[in-house]
Inverse folding.
């Protein structure tokens, strides 16, 4: 594989490419490099490669002409890659894709970036190495080249090394240990000292699954999992944080379509569907809040039908979903019940499509690791202002950037719970 490196600081690469496996691969002819300095392609006597941005603003922007000249001067057909925060997130899947190329032209930006027309003119790929800022593309370029190069045959020496690395099969790697077997009270797991290679392989696979589940659960969605992997994951206690999340469906005080404070009747589907969400994600209690006595009686009758009556016989799954549903007079009753069972007063977060909201789902997730959270959902046309004022904050609307937020409370509950917990439950 040949890398054409485009940089105004070609000397940046000298030491990293002259040591370790990259140097060895170069000596063996697996990879090779050519360097192109855009200054040598500048048309003016000052060899300028940047200019002031149109529209004003701080800093300078790398000019089109020198960079386009460089790419057009590359002798062989080559896929062009530009490193930029606006690009597609680089991962192992992309590394495998690029490792199949014979030649890559890697463009390292500087200053405030490159004229945005460049990628269209030369049909370049935009790649981001992560959500952070660098002074230039050179560091990103080095990471990119090493990640791609190590996937080439013979680069690592041992093919097993590549197969067992993090992300090789979509998982993080299992933990490694070496001598001594005990160090300051920290011991190597007994299984690794057993000499039973079959059991060691099973342990390593399970540790890779656990590490991924804990550190990067989103990777599991695309990982190559076997039926045994699924069985193992189902046995893990993934509900610790989820049990700290409680839901309350408020039927009073809420607003009607004319923005007047009112009380509304229970809806059978609201009770059933939100209860199923709570059960699916292993949440804590689900509270139906209404001060109306006839509605309390109706709600309890519906719940009892599925918990204890004929409904339990015909649909045990529905019965299980309604096990943790309670009917209470007012929101304060739910708060006190949570504090009594958990030993901690819950954070109370209101949900409303009518208010801008400042609480992000990720913030709720953080709090759940240490404290219970009661998420308050409104019926009718939304929660009354007095409920909003008494809460610890308002979760931003599901479509907070849009002007249409009119989902049913059942749909909103399901989306919010999934965004808060996702694979973390």
């Amino acid at each position: 594989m040949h890398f054409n490196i485009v940089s105004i600081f070609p000397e940046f690469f000298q030491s990293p490419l002259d040591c370790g496996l990259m140097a060895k691969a170069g000596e063996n002819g697996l990879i090779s490099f050519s360097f192109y300095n855009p200054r040598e392609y500048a048309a003016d006597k000052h060899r300028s490669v940047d200019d002031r941005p149109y529209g004003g603003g701080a800093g300078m922007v790398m000019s089109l002409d020198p960079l386009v000249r460089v790419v057009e001067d590359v002798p062989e057909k080559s896929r062009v890659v530009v490193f930029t925060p606006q690009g597609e997130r680089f991962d192992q899947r992309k590394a495998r894709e690029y490792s199949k190329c014979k030649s890559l032209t890697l463009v390292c930006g500087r200053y405030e970036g490159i004229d945005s027309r460049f990628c269209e003119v030369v049909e370049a790929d935009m790649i981001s190495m992560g959500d952070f800022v660098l002074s230039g593309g050179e560091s990103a370029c080095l990471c990119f080249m090493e990640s791609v190069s190590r996937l080439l045959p013979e680069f690592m020496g041992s093919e097993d090394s590549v197969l067992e690395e993090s992300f090789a099969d979509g998982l993080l790697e299992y933990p490694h240990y070496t001598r001594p077997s005990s160090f300051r009270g920290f011991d190597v797991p007994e299984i690794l000292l057993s000499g039973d290679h079959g059991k060691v392989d099973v342990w390593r696979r399970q540790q890779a699954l656990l590490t991924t589940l804990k550190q990067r659960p989103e990777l599991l969605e695309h990982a190559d999992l076997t039926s045994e992997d699924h069985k193992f994951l189902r046995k893990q206690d993934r509900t610790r944080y989820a049990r700290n999340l409680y839901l309350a469906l408020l039927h009073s005080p809420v607003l009607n379509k004319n923005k007047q404070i009112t009380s509304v009747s229970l809806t059978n589907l609201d009770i059933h569907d939100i209860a199923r969400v709570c059960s699916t994600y292993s949440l804590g209690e689900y509270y139906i809040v209404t001060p109306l006595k006839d509605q309390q009686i109706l709600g309890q009758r519906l719940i009892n039908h599925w918990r204890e009556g004929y409904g339990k016989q015909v649909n045990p799954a529905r019965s299980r979903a309604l096990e943790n549903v309670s009917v209470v007079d007012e929101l304060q009753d739910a708060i006190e019940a949570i504090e009594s069972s958990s030993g901690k007063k819950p954070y109370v977060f209101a949900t409303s499509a009518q208010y801008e909201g400042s609480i992000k789902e990720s913030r709720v997730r953080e709090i759940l690791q240490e404290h219970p959270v009661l998420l308050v959902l409104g019926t009718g046309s939304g929660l009354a202002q007095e409920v909003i004022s008494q809460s610890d904050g308002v979760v931003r609307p599901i479509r907070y950037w849009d002007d249409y937020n009119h989902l049913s409370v059942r749909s909103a509950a399901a989306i919010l719970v999934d965004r808060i917990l996702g694979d973390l439950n």
User: Anything to note?
Assistant: The first helix runs from residue 14 to 17. The chain has a mean pLDDT of 93. DSSP finds 17 helices and 17 strands in the chain. The first strand starts at residue 2 and ends at 6.
